[in-house]
């Protein structure tokens, strides 16, 4: 994978027009994520139904194209999932970007998120992609602040 | 004039090919510099033929290694024009040198309400040690603010100075802005109120010749690896009478004259501050780096770097949407910048594809980022072995980055 693959159109598009880029107020849970290495910073908000279904995930913050696109795509992917499914997807995404999961050979629920599959080749950028996911997990686990360091 | 192509042949790392066989453009010299063959081969030959511990062997190799180690102390003394060999302490880098002063001098002599002045452009290594001293002693830290151009507000500095000021510790050359501070003048001002003056010369050591006596510097810290020498080695310079009055920083071998379980007698300077086996090969390699710079000559280095500042400023500010952070009148070829709305991390990754190595982030100067209201910058930092053609490569690559994000 070269940078053309890293900065694929879908990533550039989500960076330019991030989906669900707003605050949810009131929300069921939220968390703040911070990467002290590069200054990336975001808030993730979750609204759950009474049955524990993720109705909405949204985010706000500053970050590079990779973290912003990752956050944007995450918010879209989470809609309608149960909390358990949401946690499982977080784990799958983690496996994907650390190269533990090969999306070509194994079954997964990642859909378009596989655009991040080659990011392990850029170790300094893995944290950018994972930050929104750690932050979402923090929100679901009632951990209000998350740092990637 | 500097024969740039000849000089470049001294640095094997400059011949590195990166991704897709692109020639490397190394613009991360503020992080660490490349080492010339002279440094590499002397370090190599120490490990091949001269490995021994120093100061205590009676055998041939130990005497040889000791002589080389101590002759480097003399090279450093001459390089800084220090008055005496007792004033040159080898450390593991500039950070340890500042910590040594903070720990030993700071904790011994500072009282609650005493003031230390630092500046808004300090590296974390010249902030955190003083915050630790503040916790231990109750002293107060005052900070010289920055102008929009990235220069120190000297009027404000003079207002901060007063009878409570015990130490001024400032950076000679900013690693994130490139600013060269008027430190001779600032030392004079500090001394006028009876304060000591410490210089963080981590970047400055490769910028211009420093004369600690003429500049009247009380303490100075630098690292070997930013002066084309090895990592893990550096120097603390301190005026002898100050070092004499300071307690040891660490205890161990080599820093004692005699030890019983009831009593210890510390060694004389400079050994009092060099506990344990030092980085012998590193010190010797740093000596070779100093020789290299002296042989090349400051005049040529300075005039070439000045032309890189001018050329770099011109070609980079011509890139659409580029905003330079740090535009001091007197600066070194460090170009910190933002490019439209594109995050510095993305700039760094895309430049890497073109073979251009830069640094992105806060550069261990978070207060500088806060001052300009930005989370990070992209930083190209040049050494004397860099060329104008390489700056052209950077400018072209930045235009490609803009294309990707269009």
Determine the strand fraction of chain A and express it as a percent band: 15-25%
The two chains with the largest interface, and their residue counts, are: A-B, 20 and 19 residues
Number of domains of chain B: 2
Helix content of chain B: 25-40%
Rounded mean pLDDT of chain A is: 91
Extended strand count of chain A: 4
How large is the radius of gyration of chain B?
22 Å
CATH class of chain A: Alpha Beta
List low-confidence stretches of chain A: none
Order of strands, main sheet of chain B, comes to 2-8-7-6-5-3-4
* Apparent shape of chain B: globular
What key phrases describe this protein's structure?
heterodimer; A: 149 residues; alpha+beta; Sufe protein. Chain: A; four-stranded mixed beta sheet; 5 helices; B: 406 residues; alpha/beta; Aspartate Aminotransferase, domain 1; Aspartate Aminotransferase, domain 2; 2 domains; seven-stranded mixed beta sheet; four-stranded antiparallel beta sheet; 15 strands
In words, what does this structure look like?
The complex is a heterodimer of chains A (about 150) and B (about 400). Chain A is α+β, with helices and mostly antiparallel strands and about 150 residues long. Chain A has a single domain (about 5-140), classed as Sufe protein. Chain: A, CATH 3.90.1010.10. Helices cover about 40% and strands about 20% of the residues of chain A. Chain A has helices at about 5, 10-15, 65-80, 85-95, 125-140; strands at about 30-35, 40-50, 55-60, 145. Chain A has a 4-stranded mixed beta sheet, with helices on one face. Chain A is globular. By secondary structure, chain B is of the alpha/beta class. Chain B has 2 domains: about 5-30 and about 295-400, Alpha-Beta Complex (Aspartate Aminotransferase, domain 1); about 40-295, Aspartate Aminotransferase, domain 2, CATH 3.40.640.10. Helices cover about 40% and strands about 15% of the residues of chain B. Chain B is built from 13 helices and 15 strands. Chain B has helices at about 5-10, 35-50, 60-80, 95-110, 130-135, 155-160, 185-190, 240-245, 280-295, 300-315, 345-355, 365-370, 390-405; strands spanning about 25, 90, 115-120, 140-145, 165-170, 195-200, 220-225, 235-240, 255-260, 265, 320-325, 335-340, 355, 360, 375-380. In chain B, the strands form 4 sheets. Chain B has a 7-stranded mixed beta sheet with strand order 2-8-7-6-5-3-4, sandwiched between helices. Chain B has a 4-stranded antiparallel beta sheet with strand order 11-12-15-14, with helices on one face. A two-stranded parallel sheet of chain B has the order 1-13. In chain B, helix 2 runs antiparallel to helix 9 and helix 4 packs parallel to helix 5 (about 130-135). Chain B is globular, with a radius of gyration of 22 Å. The model of chain B has no long low-confidence stretch (mean pLDDT about 95). The chains are: A alpha+beta (about 150), B alpha/beta (about 400). The interface of A and B includes residues 3 and 38 of A.
